[in-house]
Amino acid sequence: MWYPIAASDDLPFRHVYHAKLLDQELAVWRADDGFVNIWQNRCLHRGVRLSIGINDGQELKCQYHGWRYANRTAGCTYIPAHPDKAPARTITNRIFPCVERYGLIWSALETPVGEPAGGLALSEKPLVLRGITVRAPAAAVSAALQNLDAAATIFVQPVDSESCVIRGLVSPVADTTQRMEALRHYNDLLAALRDSVEQAAA
Amino acid sequence: MPAHLRRQRGMAIASLCAMTEQTRLDPAAANLWHPIAARDDIRPGVAEHSLLLDERISYGIDAAGTASVWRSAGASPLPCLERYGYLWTSLGDPPADIFAIPEYAEADRRRFNAASVGVHVSAPRAVENFLDMSHFPYVHTGILGDETHTEVKEYDVETSEARDEILATRCRFFQPRSSTAADHGMEVDYIYRVPHPYCAVLYKSSVVDAARQDVIGIFVQPMTQERIRAHMMICVLDDRSTDATIKQFQQVVFGQDKPILENQFPKRLPLDPKAESPVRADKVSIAYRRWLVRKGITYGVIPAAAA
Predict the structure, then answer these.
(1) Which residue in chain B has the smallest CA separation from A202?
(2) For residue B215, how many other CB atoms are within 10 A of its CB?
(3) Which CATH code fits A122-201?
(4) Yes or no, beta carbons of B151 and A83 under 8 Å apart
(5) Do B280 and A66 touch (CB under 8 A)?
């Protein structure tokens, strides 16, 4: 099953975004050719998080020893301590599936069947609500969302056993004032839901 | 009480129960001498408190200048040793003395604790970072390395059974500003010693005297499996800089390492050779991991069998 793990807007030019899905930390970065990479968030050399690394547009460079990993393949291309020696082919980071759709970045720990959002008829360019982190298990949040009276399509990203992120989509709104109103409305609605779920879980 | 505080307190109690269990599980670590504080940082007549191998400990210096250490619970006394400006203690049956640093006795050296810094990492990860040259260009850019000199040239590593320590020699690295006494870049010679599972000492070319070496030690206090205090011993030749300047230099350098260490996962050092991907430059780290396996150290590591 595909889960949203970030919004497209979380990946500005040459940024590396730190995400987490089902207890797995992810380093998410967009190369200059537009390709979005979702990798295990660890350099294979000494375990430093790649989300603190540097995205140069083509490669991701680890902060600790400058090891570089290629866009798309996640193969190590350069080990500065031994500049004349090509890195072993086996030094390739773990890649997770990725689809960018509806203004969200979708992933999974195993290759999922089907489409993100289960083939729901959604606008391809919806208004993406801000992700709201909840300190409660995804199941509890999903249950609470059943009673939500809203025109939004809402997904829950399970982060780990104790927390999740609510990611919502609504129909695009052309008018700026109305868009701000819609964002404020859903923010209030979902923040209230978060507070009640967190209180119940505490 | 709010739930998250209640949970925290519950965890604190659980870890108190686990601690004596922990020292039973790793007698090799319990029987070592461990650094707990720089003597200069202890206010006379005041009981100070800290954590060692998950156990609450207290220490102090009385009016006569005598230092003592005891278990916070029950106040039973613990062994106490003063070496290289630090108080050392043990929760088990420690050897008669700790490793020797003969240079510390040389009167013309500047000797003090540069800093004691808390880091959210295991002790062996901090030691390994201290032994590593290949991070200089990236983590200590413009000071201990630069990105135009990244190669780690071949060096030698010897694990001495007789002295019970690891020695890395013939280490060379170009450094833009190797110490407070340096005003230009130069290729610096290093020797690294690991005379203790959680302590390491380096000897590097002195800018002041070509025949002698600056000595810098990292003495790691394992507070828990994944939290430490790193005590940095300075023993250098520098007749120009103030204490504050020398301390600041070390603190800048360690301040660059700290966020790297805190972003390393797993926090405990994996001892399975396949857990990470070493290269030739990591020879000393490979020897260190093997040495920890042979010593039976389990505190702060992921044992090979379990990895």
Answers:
(1) B3
(2) 25
(3) 3.30.70
(4) yes
(5) no
Chain B nearest-CA residue for A201: B3
Nearest to B89 by CA among B52, B130, B54, B126: B52
Nearest-CA distance B253 → chain A (Å): 14
Residue ranges of the domains in chain B?
1-98, 101-307
Which residue does chain A place closest to B152, by CA atoms? A81
Do A83 and B259 make contact, defined as CB atoms within 8 angstroms?
Answer: no
Per the DSSP assignment, residues forming a β-bridge with B229 are B118, B221
CA B131 to the chain's CA centroid: 10
Residue B277 contacts A where some CB pair is shorter than 8 Å: yes
Mutate which: B265, B283, B301, vs A, most A CBs within 10 A: B265
CB pairs under 8 A between A and B: 69
Helix B243-262, helix B123-130: angle, nearest 10: 120
User: Which CATH fold topology does B1-98 show?
Assistant: N-terminal domain of TfIIb (2.20.25)
- Asked if A45 lies within 8 A of B278 by C-beta distance, the reply is yes
Closest CB to A81 among B128, B134, B276? B134
Yes or no, beta carbons of B279 and A48 under 8 Å apart = no
pTM above 0.90, yes or no: yes
Nearest by CB: B277 against A45, A64, A83: A45
Q: Which of B28, B25, B59, B27 is nearest to B44 (CA)?
A: B59
Chain B residues in contact with A202 by the CB 8 A cut-off are 2-4
Tokens representing A112? 């999922």
The answer to whether A81 faces chain B, any CB pair under 8 Å, is: yes
- How far apart CA A176 and CA A107 sit, in angstroms, is 31
Compute how many other C-beta atoms are within 10 angstroms of the C-beta atom of residue A94: 13
Q: What CATH number is given for A1-115 in this structure?
A: 2.102.10.10
Please judge whether A81 and B139 are an interchain contact, meaning their C-beta atoms are less than 8 angstroms apart: no
Pick the CATH number of B101-307 from 3.20.20.300, 3.90.380.10, 3.40.640.10, 1.20.1740.10: 3.90.380.10
Rounded CA-CA distance B181/B184 in Å is: 10
What pLDDT tens digit does each residue of chain B (307 aa) get?
A: 344 434 444 444 444 444 455 556 689 999 999 999 999 999 999 999 999 999 999 999 999 999 999 999 999 999 999 999 999 999 999 999 999 999 999 999 999 999 999 999 999 999 999 999 999 999 999 999 999 999 999 999 999 989 999 999 999 999 999 888 888 899 999 999 999 999 999 999 998 898 999 999 999 999 999 999 999 999 999 999 999 999 999 999 999 999 999 999 999 999 999 999 999 999 999 999 999 999 999 999 999 875 4
Question: Residues spanned by CATH 2.102.10.10 within chain A?
Answer: 1-115
Provide the edge-to-edge strand list for the sheet that holds A24-30.
A16-21, A24-30, A36-40
